[in-house]
């Protein structure tokens, strides 16, 4: 029978906010004695980027084609704690508890074509003979972004544009466009209400319609072989309307854009940076180039109270304590959810191509793991992580210190009557 490893976490789902503490227990069952150099718990929080570019060069009058690989890596957190030393690991059941504090500036998990930010807990059996066994539990980590601490996001976004059909001296009248969005920041699940005013002062042309899109812009920064950046512009949501605006006429059009399950806007210095914008384009028709302009917006994890669809219930959704306590420094503290309604998390949408990590252990891949993000359906509070007293895993568990060489938590041999709590996530492998 192969070895079996399960992970019991103090949250129902493997989702945590930056600044929280991950409490849990690893359950290992082996059917025979194992000669090991050591057994240790490894926690990693990293970002990786990689992409290839096809290039040409000339040498001795000959053109050569080659591929250059750009890559980068950034470590946010790494702890390695030994739970069993060199010797024979006896057959049977073993339990190892852990307690891992997440820094406040941990960026949000994401998985994209040219890079990913990921967090995972591993139990590694370093065998004296043969290959090591690595049992993994991936996690979603979300950096809290409370939009209510940024008053400037309450200011409506107004963007004006002027477009002429022809060049001077044959210029027709201009097309004046004004796009208004009531707030500068939103959270996933909310709708962006917009108002669009188009004033067609042209005496010769009618407008065929317009298109409005919500776009995600991802910037990847490579460090090797030299610094270089690459970005991806992805459409998340859009609406296209064929409402014509005739010459010498004016129209005011209102609508909404739905924000899907996506990571928040990046605020920390990371090799992967995510931002968002609303792109507006007018279909000029008659072989004229479309008129385009965009408005940047912020996506957070806690919406503005003033942006609620139903303001009478705002107090039920917004945490009653600020993100950052008085005297605290650094990033936002995780909000208090004591008086908030229970929430929902949804898997990231519009994933497209996902990052292929060539360094990953192919025996125990975690490529099928999809990060999940808080969603505010009808202004609902995102799922609150359970309080620490919900699970006995959080009591009397030594904290893994962040630097290397942390002291090991006491390892305990489990009995058949051991009490399980939390949610188990398991691996089975031949050892």
TrEMBL record:
SMART domains, per the entry: Arrestin_C (SM01017)
All copies of domain Arrestin C-terminal-like, residue ranges: 171-304
SUPFAM superfamilies: E set domains
Region (Disordered) location: 368-431
Biased composition (Polar residues): 378-394, 412-431
InterPro entries attached to this UniProt entry: Arrestin-like_C, Arrestin-like_N, Arrestin_C-like, Arrestin_domain-protein, Ig_E-set
CC annotations in GO: cytoplasm
Pfam families reported for this sequence: Arrestin_C, Arrestin_N
Keywords per UniProt: Sensory transduction
Gene Ontology BP terms: protein transport
Family to which the UniProt record says this protein belongs: Belongs to the arrestin family.
Official protein name in the record: Blast:Arrestin domain-containing protein 3
Organism for this UniProt entry: Drosophila guanche
């Amino acid at each position: 029978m192969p070895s079996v490893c399960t992970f019991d976490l103090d949250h129902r789902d493997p989702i945590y906010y930056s600044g929280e503490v991950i409490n849990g227990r690893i359950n290992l069952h082996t059917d025979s004695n194992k000669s090991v150099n050591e057994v240790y718990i490894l926690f990693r929080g990293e970002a990786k980027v990689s992409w290839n570019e096809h290039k040409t060069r000339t040498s001795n009058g000959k053109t050569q084609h080659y591929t250059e690989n750009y890559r980068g890596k950034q470590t946010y957190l790494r702890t390695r704690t030994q739970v069993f030393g060199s010797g024979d690991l006896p057959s049977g059941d073993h339990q190892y508890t852990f307690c891992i504090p997440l820094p406040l500036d941990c960026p949000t998990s994401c998985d994209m074509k040219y890079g990913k930010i990921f967090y995972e807990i591993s139990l590694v059996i370093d065998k004296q003979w043969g290959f090591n066994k690595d049992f993994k539990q991936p996690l979603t980590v979300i950096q809290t972004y409370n939009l209510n601490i940024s008053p400037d996001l309450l200011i409506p976004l107004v963007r004006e544009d002027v477009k002429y059909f022809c060049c001077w001296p044959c210029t027709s009248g201009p097309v004046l466009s004004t796009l208004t969005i009531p707030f500068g920041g939103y959270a996933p699940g909310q709708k962006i209400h917009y108002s669009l005013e188009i004033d067609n002062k042209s005496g010769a042309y009618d407008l065929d319609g317009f298109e409005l899109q919500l776009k995600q812009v991802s910037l990847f920064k490579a460090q090797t072989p030299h610094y270089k950046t690459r970005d991806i512009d992805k459409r998340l949501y859009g609406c296209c309307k064929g409402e014509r605006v005739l010459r010498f006429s004016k129209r005011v059009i209102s609508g909404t854009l739905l924000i899907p399950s996506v990571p928040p806007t990046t605020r920390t210095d990371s090799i992967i940076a995510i931002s968002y914008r609303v792109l507006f384009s007018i279909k000029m028709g008659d072989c004229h180039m479309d008129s385009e302009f965009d408005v940047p917006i912020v996506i957070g994890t806690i919406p503005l109270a003033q942006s609620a669809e139903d303001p009478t219930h705002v107090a039920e959704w917004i945490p009653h304590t600020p993100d950052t306590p008085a005297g605290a420094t650094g990033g936002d503290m995780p909000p208090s959810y004591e008086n908030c309604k229970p929430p929902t998390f949804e898997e990231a949408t519009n994933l497209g191509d996902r990052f292929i990590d060539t360094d990953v252990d192919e025996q125990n891949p975690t490529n099928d793991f999809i990060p999940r993000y808080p969603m505010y359906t009808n202004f609902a509070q995102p799922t609150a992580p359970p309080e620490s007293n919900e699970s006995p895993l959080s009591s009397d568990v030594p904290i893994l210190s962040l630097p290397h060489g942390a002291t090991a938590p006491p390892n305990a041999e489990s009995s058949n009557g051991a009490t399980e709590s939390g949610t188990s996530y398991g691996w089975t492998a031949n050892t």
